[in-house]
Structure formats: C-alpha cells, structure tokens
Amino acid sequence: MDPAAGMVDKAVAVLANLATIPEGRNAIGQAGGIPVLVEVVELGSARGKENAAAALLQLCTNSGRFCSLVLQEGAVPPLVALSQSGTPRAKEKAQALLSYFRNQRHGGAGRR
C-alpha cells in the first residue's frame, strides 16, 4: 500500500470519530472537510470510503446545513456506487445516507 494512502485512511478514520461529537462535526464543516470526505467516497481506498461515508452520515443526520453542503458537493453518485460495491459497512452507511436524503427531499423527519 502507498504510504500516503495509508495516511489518508488514518486521517479519514479520525474524522469519522470526530463526526460523532458536536464539536467535531462543527470543526469538520467549518474547516472545509466535507468536499474532502466526498472526494474520498469517490476515489479513496475501501477503508477510506467506509470511514468517509460514516463521517458524512453523522454530519448530515445532525445538521441540515451540512447535509446541503454534502449534496452540493455531488455526493449522490459516488454514494450510489458505494452502496452497490463497497465493504458491508460502507454499503450500510451509503444506503443509510441515501435513504436520509430521500426522506429529507420528501419532507420526512429522517433519522437522528
């Protein structure tokens, strides 16, 4: 494995952990982390995609503003691809996020 790719995977794993707490979510959103996470979902390693999807799910289900930013970054096509061909955990997170987007679009409360 490319050492740089390993560092990206580790960094995204840290972001996924940070996304589980309010301060971490705010830091990720304010520091421009959303475009990076969407890029990792599209182009990252299997582990990176899995953790990026988990982080995006946390960001979206806890903030409508962050959810809008994720959608503006074009996250849907790579999430659809991930929901079909990722690791089991990545598929689960991608499917949950896509379901959340559908519920939001149709005026549903979504999940917390």
UniProtKB/TrEMBL annotation:
The keyword Cell wall biogenesis/degradation does not apply. This is U-box domain-containing protein. Pfam families: ARM_PUB. It comes from the Eukaryota. InterPro entries: ARM-like (IPR011989), ARM-type_fold (IPR016024), ARM_PUB (IPR058678). Keywords: Ubl conjugation pathway. PANTHER family: U BOX DOMAIN-CONTAINING, U-BOX DOMAIN-CONTAINING PROTEIN 4. Residues 8-103 form the U-box domain.
